[in-house]
Amino acid sequence: MKSWRGAAFDYLLCGDVALLKERNIFGSVCALTPLPSIYLRRRKSGDFVILQEGEPLVYSPDDIIYIKSYEPAAADLRATGLHRGDPFRVTEQ
After folding, report:
1. 41 to 7, 37, 44, 91: CA distances (angstroms)
2. Which domain of life is it from (predicted)?
3. pTM for this one?
4. Per-residue pLDDT averaged across 32-48, rounded?
5. Average pLDDT over residues 7-25
6. ∠ CA 73-78-83 to the nearest 5 degrees?
């Protein structure tokens, strides 16, 4: 239960949560385990990585359910074009 509270906190604070699909010997999903968002990265290859001391843990995209929240402020920036470069740039119109 504590890890699910952490997942809810990560979703509210970081805006995303990743759930690891735990599989049985037959390959069926038998449990979902939340992963800490603060240490989670996504590689260009699509793999998910958990940073830790020593070798990182690498997971295939097939083993992760990634839930990202919608951020209206980011959509507004994309619509204005200000997300490219300096947000305080003034352009002549």
Report:
1. 16, 8, 10, 35
2. Bacteria
3. 0.69
4. 91
5. 89
6. 90
Res. 32 pLDDT band, cuts 50 70 90: very high
| Spatial CA neighbour of 34 closest among 72, 13, 64, 78 | 64
Identify the three-state secondary structure at position 43: coil
Q: Catalogue all structural domains in the chain, each as residue range(s) with its CATH number.
A: 2-80 (3.40.140.120)
- Please, how many CA atoms are within 13 Å of residue 51, restricted to the half-sphere of its CB? 7
CA distance 14 to 49: 16
What letter represents residue 53's amino acid? Answer: E
Distance between CA atoms of 23 and 37, rounded to whole angstroms?
Answer: 21
Residues 21, 72, 14, 85: is their CA dihedral positive or negative?
A: positive
